[in-house]
Amino acid sequence: MIDVIDLKKDFQGNHVLNGIDLHIDKGDIVVITGPSGSGKSTFLRCLNCMEDPSGGQIIFNGVDIADMKVDINIHRRHMGMVFQHFNLFNNKTVLQNISLAPIHVRKTDKKEKTSKKKIIEEENARAMKLLERIGLADKANVYPATLSGGQKQRVAIVRALAMNPDVILFDEPTSALDPEMVGEVLDLMKELAQDGMTMVIVTHEMGFAKEVANRVLFIDEGKIKEDEPPEEFFGNPKNPRLKEFLSKVLV
Amino acid sequence: MNNFGAKVDQFTEIVFHQGGINKIVEGLQNTLLIAILGLIIGIIIGTLIATVRVVPKYKLLPRILNGFCSFYVGLFRGTPMVVQLLVFYYVLLPLLEMRMTGVQVSIMVFGLNSGAYISEIMRSGIQSVDVGQMEAGRAVGLSFATTMRMIVIPQAVKNILPTLGNEFIALIKETSVVSFVGASDLYVAFNYIGTNSYEFMVPYLVMAVIYIILVILISTGIRLMERSLRKSDRRN
Q: Which residues of B touch A87 (CB under 8 A)?
């Protein structure tokens, strides 16, 4: 589904990604780990061109989205993203956060025959269903500022889900949460995984990686140093830097 | 000061029995019209310029637009309002062979002028909104312009509302120069009353009081607006 070919990224001469090749299949749960500054977040942000790659290709559903000429907005609709700091729209209610983009996309679609009022009704109803699924239906009409961190992140995840994406990218989704809220977010992500959603996750949650991922990647110095199923990755690491990393992380 | 009572009598006589009140109402209308329409035009122009100035500048078009906007802002912030009014009325209009009333010219110049100032206010407002808001909008496939319009600018406006209120107050006060191009504002009305009675003390005093009342009303209005807009960050 996603083919990354020789992806490079530098920030004003500072080489962050030095040629990454990766193939992601539909249904893959890829967890990316690595020391801080290794380029793992940059890599994830390059996947939906939140950072424009400096070189290489990202073939997503047959189109090279790293090409500056493609309309990136259309492709991003099939590629959800969840942020470390949630980034819910502060000026919109919880329900609007979820339905805003689907409503906008359908309203501006020339092939769409449904009336605008009907679209809003339908999408709000769908957003409500998503909220019910995560048990936050009673929060539909409040603003994000009133939610806890865990609630915000779960809303952010269903906001991504509302676009019916082919893949969801998670950029350290639990790093900004209080420890007691990490569980609820990971549980929701596990649910998505069980539903067969393709996911690429940058995280330090090694337990989650072991349990849910089917591939674990180790990125260091802007390159993928290891790409193995979790049993192999944690049980029999080969790269010396990874061994050192694991010895510090798994205490 | 012993004849102050007589001066007040003279003033009320002209205002209430010789049509002075009509002049004042007309002046008040024009003052408000120029300031309010000027502010609206200014907000539109200012928002457009501010948006151009925060657009990523990889491509040629944003760079050209950005250059033009810098020039525009420099021009209107670098000359006094009176000069702009005079140049518009006595230079540009004849050159373009256009006819406009003093009030129309004033509305335009006030709009263009405050657009330059508001663009800077708006830019700081936009930059005060967390970049994550823009990223989240882009990540769900909204364009830069749509995210700007639906997510970033509403939050920016909330942040800059007090400053925008100050701009409106400044505009109200600055309308007192529009008589340079023949628009009759509050100043013209009270000047007329003064000239007719050869007595300026009371008219100008009343004029000052009216300006102060206007400013107090606007300040109160803005405070109320701010409070209602702040509901999205209140925990309820």
A: 130, 132-133, 135-136
Q: Which pair of tokens denotes residue A48?
A: 């939906």
Q: How far apart are CA A244 and CA A196, in angstroms?
A: 33
pLDDT for B2: 64
Q: Which residues of chain B have pLDDT under 70?
A: 1-2, 231-236
Could you write out the DSSP letters of every residue in B7-66? HHHHHHHHHHHSSHHHHHHHHHHHHHHHHHHHHHHHHHHHHHHHHHHHS---SHHHHHHH
Q: pLDDT tens-digit profile of B206-216?
A: 999 999 999 99
Supply the pLDDT for residue A126: 95
A76 touches chain B (CB under 8 A): yes
pLDDT in tens, B91-107: 999 999 989 999 999 99
Q: What are phi and psi of A8, to 5 degrees?
A: -125, 145
Facing A83 at nearest CB: one of B58, B136, B150: B136
Q: Residue B158: list chain A partners with CB under 8 A.
A: 91
pLDDT, averaged per 10 consecutive residues of chain A (251 residues), comes to: 93 91 95 91 93 93 91 93 96 95 92 90 95 95 93 96 95 93 94 95 93 94 93 93 90 70
Residue ranges and CATH numbers for the domains of chain B are: 2-235 (1.10.3720.10)
A5-25 per-residue burial string, b: 16 or more CB within 10 A, e: under 16: bebbbeeeeeebbeebebebe
In DSSP terms, A169 is beta-bridged to A81, A200
Backbone φ and ψ of A58, nearest 5°: -125, 105
Q: Do A101 and B234 touch (CB under 8 A)?
A: no
Structure token pair of residue A250: 């798994």
Tokens describing residue B169: 């107050």
Asked whether the beta carbons of A198 and A168 are under 8 A apart, the reply is yes
Q: Mark yes or no for CB contact B154/A91 under 8 Å.
A: yes
- Tell me, rounded to whole angstroms, the distance of Cα A251 from its chain centroid: 27
Give the residue from B58, B130, B140, B150 with the most A CB atoms within 10 Å of its CB, the best one to mutate: B140
Residue B103 CA to residue B60 CA, distance in Å, equals: 39
Mark which residues 153-192 of A lie under 8 Å from B by CB: 156, 159-160, 163
The pLDDT tens digits of the residues spanning B27-64 come to 999 999 999 999 999 999 999 999 999 888 778 888 99
- The per-residue pLDDT for B1 is 58
In chain B, residues with a C-beta closer than 8 Å to the C-beta of A146 are 234-236
